[in-house]
Amino acid sequence: MIKYRSSQILYKIFVQAVFVLFSITIIFALYYLISNSMKTDTEFAANQFGLPKLYFENYVYVWKEAAIGITFRNSIIICSTGACICMFISILTGYAFVYFRFAGKGFLSYMILSTLYISPMALMLPLYLQMTKLGLNNTYIGIIIIYVALNSAFAVYLMTTYFKSIPPEIIEAAVVDGCTKLGLLFRIFVPLVKSGILVTGIISFSAMWNDLLFALIFLQQEKRQTLMVAIAKFRSTFGSGNMTYILSSLVIATIPVIVLYLLAQRSFKEGLVAGAVK
Amino acid sequence: MKRRLKDNLSAYAFLSPGIAILLFVFGYQVFRLFLFSLIRWQGYIYTNEFNRFSYFIDLFSKGYVIAPLMRSFLIISIVVPAVIFVTVFIAHNIYRQIAGWRFYRWLFFLPAIIPIVVTSIIWTYLLSVFGPINTVLRSLHLDFLVVDWFGNSKTALLTLCWIIIWRELGFSTIIFLADLSNAPPSVYEAAIIDGANEFQLMRHVTIPYLNRIIKLYVVTMMIFVLNNLFSIVLVTTNGGPGWATTVLEYYIFTLTFKAGKAGLGTAVAVLLFIITMILVVVYFRLFRGRKGEGIF
Q1: Does the residue A53 lie in any domain?
Q2: What are the pLDDT digits (tens) for B197-236?
Q3: Less Cβ around it within 10 Å: N or C end of chain A?
Q4: Is A46 inside a domain boundary?
Q5: What is the DSSP string of A55-82?
Q6: How far lies B244's CA from each of A42, A184, B151, B212, in Å?
Q7: Are residues A266 and A136 in the same domain?
Q8: Shortest Cα distance, chain B CAs vs residue A59, angstroms
């Protein structure tokens, strides 16, 4: 019995040690990012571990002088338009899958879900030549079309899980009352899963916000660049000097995603879980 | 019969915008990808000549593709077991409510919501020659451990794996936990009464319970590691030093958009596409295990 107790305690110490070590990597990475983003370069060179004295000049500088402000605006325009279209399309598609019976339903569901896993890099050259031919390179429309397509499989998948949670009695009652198919969608389905639609939008927005590959290839013109591209380029032009500038632009890039996450914390996690494995 | 037809028509009307955009960006481009791999290229200009599979033959006979392919497989063989093993450990202990479990559950998810570009740049700095980690090692007089993690071709790939794992654990933990939260506590109680210790609980209760999700996650993560490392590689190492971190996916980018060898790039792209599709088929097989027809 005594032996059992002591092994139990050893086990707990072991687990705590592992958890604390991993926690330290997360906390330190965030501390390093935030504290050094508020230092001047000389302060940083002198001591990269110390606390800063709330100095926001770096943020002002990168926002105004280093294209972070402009590209931030570009990213917001692209991602919010993209997320709205994505929500709209996934509502229509999800409704078709949940409410109707139609030929080729099973096959089509597999086809749509497989687009979630298709290698984006493999399709890059065909897509690039296609967009060039249509004159959609370096346009917001072009990148929005691509982003919507990339994210709609996941969004449709989420919407179907939300739509399925609507009690059938409500739908039947509406049909008996003579509701049309469009009316059923916009008066019954959509209002009942408002928060689900919001989560779908937030997840799509974050995915678009985080993208580097497509933005890098399809928006090469400097004034149309997105924030992630600007940051990646910023780093290669500044190199190892001016690190504090780069760190402050990283903080700026993280804020919108964190804010969105905090807005819908619980349902956000549930959405990710539902989408990942069901 | 008439109602059936009408139902079909209205369903397709609702489906059409989604299907149209997916066909344009995916379906049609997959078709063109295969076509492109069979014709001769001059830089970015394609001809109408059949290439007699010359790009595929070059890839394998001259051995271009072997090293990037091996790197991708190496990363998979490191990252996938590591993530699964650590996630089971974390999820089990959070489920068993070790001291501070609420805090850990919240904290471990944070890396998953930070943009991947941001994560990659922070870790490049943390692990650089004069970065904080090496500074601490020096001050502890552990100079033999001081490594230029990303600048050294021996450690670059491992360092890349660390970033992938660090970020991935956030997602995997909440997903495994969500599945585990449906586990009946009575099974654990019974096992404890029978004298099982925590390792036995993990091995004989938690892992069997998570069996299905572990299988699904292994396949999903293999697909992810094959296809979604571009941002991390570009930002941290740019495929270097030398070719040390040029994985299959990044090799396509290098060939197509940096070296101007579109033909070869397309051949590698077809290879990656086919490997991914095989994994997707495996994934759907596992997925269907519990469900009948269709997914939605």
Answers
A1: no
A2: 888 889 999 999 999 899 999 999 999 999 999 999 999 8
A3: N
A4: no
A5: --HHHHHHHHTSSHHHHHHHHHHHHHHH
A6: 34, 56, 10, 35
A7: yes
A8: 16
Q: Which amino acid is at A122?
A: A
C-alpha closest to that of A250 among A104, A107, A68, A78: A68
- Nearest residue in B to A265, CA atom: B106
Asked if A149 and A140 touch (Cβ cutoff 8 Å), the reply is no
**A66, A248 contact by CB (below 8 A):** no
Residues B226, B250 contacting (CB under 8 angstroms): no
Q: What is the pTM of this model?
A: 0.91
Write out chain B residues lying below 8 Å of A7, CB-based: 197
Domain that holds residue A14: 2-36
CATH code for the domain in which residue A149 is found: 1.10.3720.10
The minimal CB distance from B280 to the residues A98, A114, A185 is found for A114
* Identity of the residue in A89, A212, A240 whose CB atom sits nearest the CB atom of B117: A212
ipTM of this model? 0.91
Across the interface, do B256 and A125 touch by the CB < 8 Å criterion? yes
Whether the Cβ atoms of residue A221 and residue A74 lie closer than 8 Å to each other: no
Distance of alpha carbon A125 from alpha carbon A136, whole angstroms:
14
| Facing B33 at nearest CB: one of A11, A112, A126 | A126
Q: pLDDT for B263-278, tens place per residue?
A: 899 999 999 999 999 9
Please state the domain count of chain A: 2
Fold held by B63-288: MetI-like fold (1.10.3720)
Neighbours of B140 (CB within 10 A): 9
Cis peptide bond prior to B81, omega within 30° of 0: no
